[in-house]
Amino acid sequence: MDWKSWFAIEWQQVVGISITAFGLYLALILFTRVMGLRSFSKLSSYDFAMTVAIGSILASTILSDNPSLSQGLVAVAVLFLIQGTISLIRRKFKPLKSIIDNQAIILMAHGEYFCDNLKEANLTKSDVQEVLRKNGLKSKSEVFAVIMETTGDMSVIKQDNTAPDWSLFDDIRDSHLLVHSSKAV
To answer: Could you tell me the CA-to-CA distances from 3 to 9, 13, 63 in Å, in that order?
Structure first.
């Protein structure tokens, strides 16, 4: 291996990378201002996919002369437009929201695992146990609920004396299991 060529960079490459990075950065600021803060949120799986796709386009455009800056800008703009369109559809046409979005699912309630839901989410009890430990829990009896959110994150809600506001759970599939955990295994 020729170590000298490994670290070599020509001044034209430095200028090209700098101009491309600066142009894309300004475009991201503009697109985010126009499309809103949701642009880089992780509220749904498609939001996360958008963030990954933008990162991939930026990296390939900045570090390569193909795609060009113009091609990178068009690709990023199209992704922002797609995301904006999907967000609009989700807000305006409620029946389509359920087709587009994943639905949160209960993995555990009142210290009991829901094996059917774990299976559907491709998770094991061990996966949930890891999340419980990361949240400082020492006992399953401390758990009111573990919910796999639409983003794939797991929310752990600890058991306490506060009466639940059930409206917080009405968008979760099988939310009735929080009241009656008879389907638990």
So the answer is: 12, 18, 20
